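Thread: EPU complex, take 2
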Amino acid sequence: MDKLQIVGGNRLNGEITVSGAKNAALPILCASLLTADTITLQNVPDLNDIGTTLRLLGRMGVQSEHGHDGVVQLNAAQVHSLEAPYELVKTMRASILVLGPLLSRFGEARVSLPGGCAIGQRPVDQHIKGLEAMGAEIKIEHGFVVAKAKRLKGASIRTDMVTVTGTENLMMAAVLAEGRTTLENAAREPEIVDLAELLIKMGARIQGHGGDRITIDGVDALHGASHQVVADRIEAGTFLCAVGAAGGEIVLRRAAPGTMGATLDKLQEAGLSIECGDDWIRCSMNKRPRATGFRTREYPGLPTDMQAQLMALNTIADGTAVIVENIFENRYMHVQELVRMGAQIDIDGHTAVVTGVPQLSGATVMATDLRASASLVIAGLAAFGETTVERIYHLDRGYERMEEKLRSVGANIQRVKREAA
Ligand code: EPU
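Output below.
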């Protein structure tokens, strides 16, 4: 497995172009199942999870072309399989996002149930409950969600908690259902808005996306469309944390600062200077960060997907930060690895107390999820000496050419390929 070798201590200076958002691109790719016409997408990041999704869709008969510069064309005119197999779902939980579109367009779907996950149990009961409310008959058989419906019917659905992919699945199911669906307690994440915007271009009738009540009036068929995927707010936030920890000044191009309010506020509290235009962010840091506690929340609150990276920043801050993870029950796997680099962190349930130390020291570390791995890279950039981050396939699932982007702004970071490792 590839590793990253980082020699800490370099300041970061220069420009980085932000990629399209993984978590917007995944549901958007699945939305191609909703029409027999071609969907053209721009700004699709080149990531392992995108490759997995294209393979999954390909197995069903969706033809796709992944060109240069993030352009992807998809055509689902000849779908011949309505199944998402275990071997793909187990590597990527977001595969569940084919359930809504398949059921809605073809009246049938068989999707492997995702198992447990490194960051929490992550059940999909709310996806199922919503589809049942729309008239689907759903059974769990041999580890698969087996769903059938002649035609889904609009319904009023209130999920028990705010769920991002749940909202996306139900929105994609409702666009071809008969009548009106209202989704109450809907997720408000920018990735939901991006998906809704594509669906509207395809002919869907959706209102209220971006709020917690989304109304969808079903139509008989959708048509082709072209869409540019929104910028990745988590990738952007990760680079800002890296500057906060290592010092320097960078400009992020093709960013979406309008989707990053809570993260930008928190970084300013930590002492970064930040200036934004419509699609760029300039940030600089010339001192030790200040400790800044936070609680993760659904959008527009502080994203759980930034928790690990902001924790890495706090490990070298002046003061003590109290961090509460509210979304996932087991999202502190980076803590023990950060402690191996000299961080002082105490965990009690969902709460982490981080007492800043003047400097971390490089070590060999590894993490079992994507954002945890990103936090170790940030720690390595700031640490004294060499850090090796192992098992970076997690990073490759969600960050496009992370080490190249960091090297381009002056980081001393190399990928060691498996053969050479
Ligand atoms: N939940 C349930 N039942 C459900 C659905 C969710 O109990 O049917 C619970 C979850 O276990 C969790 C909470 O509700 O405790 C919120 O989960 P949500 O469904 O919102 O998470 P998700 O849709 O599975 C997406 C992102 C995650 C991100 C979360 C929270 C994608 C593909 N994934 O997951 O991204 O952390 O929303 O914002 O959009 C990442 O990119 O690293 C990542 C993990």
